[in-house]
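Tip: read the tokens left to right.
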């Protein structure tokens, strides 16, 4: 077992097992992991003023930062372990290499220092101590906040070491046993490289957490009431289920009805129309004389929207080739220039609504309008032009899907992205690559991805209109 297994184990036992024993061909490439690696290297390098080297030789030479070192050792008599410290940082002391020693350091994304960071540091120290022949009192957590490097010291006391030892024993037992269950908290799965593999099994076994709106707590509550899978849930009586869902208070019967319909749709593969005639007539009336579709690509850690994409649609159901797409890049976070272009587009067709998927786009535009000192009335009038199709589709349909994300819904409608296996995270990964290499090919990929996102949103709008009109 190694540091990576421990990291996975703290997130999901099954992930640790799959990383160790799973068939690699079932694993998919994770942009999150790649982004993490790049960020990690950049921040470590900045922290060590560029004096960062790889492997054992770097320790012997006493360089400030050492990466890529793997150290093997024995935890107990017969348990072999390997640490892969993210970074070793030179400090005062005495080790087998001379009048210095190394401390383990980890990179942290976001604000919260978690078990994952603490365990990694403690595990690293356990094998690093005998290896460098020097005691380690503390480890370091390195992060950035508004582009400034932050450092947190973690004391690796007896209590923490003992705790990690226990976790390592459990990890060892887990890796030797059979594959663990899928995690109850399926939110963790969204950034996991084994997601496809686990999703397939979850669907086959009728996992309750496959149903939109059912998280780990609701799933446990249902199980306690004898509803153990989606099949049982689909056949349940709405009133009886509502009585069991008192935690949802006034909404208990409404929730019960949605959960049951959602399960039925999920199992049968058939969508279910919630009558919503007025909303659709309203949408049709608003968009019949033209509209924009708007989609943003951003780097949330830097609070930087690097691409604003507009698709101009003069008429619904026009040929895709006749649509006009305008990307506005914001490469240097030069707000003035990109804001001017956005306002120019939005006000070139003052009455046109702006369709988007999810709340981000509307929030971004309101912020831009505030930044440009628009009056309250102007902001109100601009915001009222925005129509969130994600909210609308949820109000109008129960779809046979696990979630209502843009990719899931539009894929189900048959939309295909021109680039394979893409996602917002992959676009962010390309953006980071562009910043490092300045190779325009990455910008081209991002723009094509964003254009496809706009087209996918259009396909959802067309579906809403077409099917609602048919049913009425
Ligand atoms: S997809 Fe979910 S259940 Fe499967 S290994 Fe990853 S986190 Fe665990």
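Filled-in amino acids:
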């Amino acid at each position: 077992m190694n540091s990576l297994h421990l990291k996975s184990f703290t997130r999901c036992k099954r992930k640790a097992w799959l990383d160790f024993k799973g068939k690699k061909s079932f694993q998919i490439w994770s942009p999150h992991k790649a982004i993490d690696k790049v960020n990690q290297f950049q921040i470590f390098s900045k922290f060590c003023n560029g004096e960062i080297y790889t492997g054992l030789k770097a320790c012997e030479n006493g360089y400030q930062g050492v990466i890529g070192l793997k150290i093997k050792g024995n935890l107990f008599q017969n348990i072999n372990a390997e640490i892969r410290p993210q970074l070793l940082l030179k400090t005062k002391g005495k080790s087998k290499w001379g009048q210095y020693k190394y401390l383990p350091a980890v990179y942290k994304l976001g604000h919260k220092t978690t078990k994952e960071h603490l365990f990694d540091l403690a595990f690293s120290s356990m094998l690093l101590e005998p290896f460098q022949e020097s005691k380690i009192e503390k480890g370091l957590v390195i992060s950035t906040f508004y582009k400034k490097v932050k450092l947190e010291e973690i004391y690796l006391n007896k209590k923490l070491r003992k705790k990690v030892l226990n976790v390592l024993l459990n990890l060892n037992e887990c890796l030797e046993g059979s594959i663990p269950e899928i995690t109850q908290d399926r939110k963790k799965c969204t950034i996991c490289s084994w997601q496809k593999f686990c999703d397939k099994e979850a669907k086959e076994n009728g996992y309750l957490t496959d149903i939109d709106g059912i998280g780990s707590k609701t799933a446990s509550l249902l199980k306690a009431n004898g509803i153990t899978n989606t099949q049982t849930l689909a056949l349940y009586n709405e009133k009886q289920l509502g009585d069991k869902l008192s935690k949802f208070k006034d909404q208990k019967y409404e929730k019960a009805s949605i959960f049951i319909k959602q399960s039925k749709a999920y199992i049968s593969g058939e969508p279910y129309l919630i009558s919503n005639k007025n909303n659709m007539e309203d949408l049709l009336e608003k968009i019949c004389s033209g509209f924009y579709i708007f989609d943003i690509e951003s780097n949330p850690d830097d609070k930087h929207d690097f691409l604003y994409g507009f698709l101009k649609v003069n008429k619904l159901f026009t040929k895709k080739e006749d649509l006009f797409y305008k990307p506005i890049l914001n490469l240097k976070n030069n707000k003035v220039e990109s804001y001017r272009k956005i306002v120019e587009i939005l006000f070139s067709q003052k009455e046109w609504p702006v369709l988007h998927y999810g709340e981000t786009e509307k929030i971004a535009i309101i912020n831009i309008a505030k930044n440009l000192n628009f009056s309250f009335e102007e902001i109100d009038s601009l915001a009222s032009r925005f129509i969130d199709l994600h909210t609308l589709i949820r109000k109008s349909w129960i779809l046979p899907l696990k979630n209502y994300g843009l990719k899931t819904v539009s894929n189900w409608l048959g939309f295909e992205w021109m680039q394979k296996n893409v996602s917002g995270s992959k676009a962010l990964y390309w953006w980071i690559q562009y910043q490092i290499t300045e190779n325009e090919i990455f910008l081209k990929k991002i723009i094509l991805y964003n254009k496809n996102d706009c087209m996918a949103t259009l396909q959802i709008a067309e579906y809403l209109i077409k099917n609602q009109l048919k049913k009425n």
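Residues 51 and 217 are 48 Å apart (CA to CA). The chain has three domains: 3-176, 205-270, 277-471.
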